[in-house]
């Protein structure tokens, strides 16, 4: 079995990292990982992204008022009139603790989902002189995120790198978006500082190893692909 749908691949990788992919599905996925380099790279991306998200999230200590509100919602609040039967003390507190964890988790879910959503409104292929596709570039301009997929090995001299540029619609100098991956199956996720909505195309230049030292394209422009400002 080979998963070719990008959204499904991302969803499975995320579930695998989160631990929600279980049973036979997890075992099948682990077998796929042994032979699919691109899938392993997506898993590594999700691991790093989730770890960085956890590092940037401060622990939340609920206030006494929050505890009381959660207990009331779950029916765990101490009744004013003593009942003949009362829940076991430790059980009440364990249930309340679980409720707090769920409440905090739900409050984090929306921004987490937004962070990982990727809905491209631009999709272009960068091709060589023989019209063979080298990279697929997708851009979600609303979230200012970019994804690059490498379709074949692209060798260059050891002292050179390939750099991606955003061509600006107003004709001003192109803006660097980062170095291009050169190995077949490699993917690159970017959230550039430049506003992708200001662009109308991409270019790839040959630069010294590590990229342009000036912030401007210094080497030959090898590939150019334009796109409309609106789709």
UniProtKB/TrEMBL annotation:
The keyword Transmembrane applies. GO terms for molecular function: sigma factor antagonist activity. Keywords: Membrane, Transmembrane, Transmembrane helix. One of its GO terms (cellular component) is plasma membrane. The keyword Transcription does not apply. Residues 95-221 form the Anti-sigma K factor RskA C-terminal domain. It comes from the Bacteria. GO terms for biological process: regulation of translation. The chain crosses the membrane at residues 93-112. This is Anti-sigma-K factor RskA. It comes from Fontimonas thermophila.
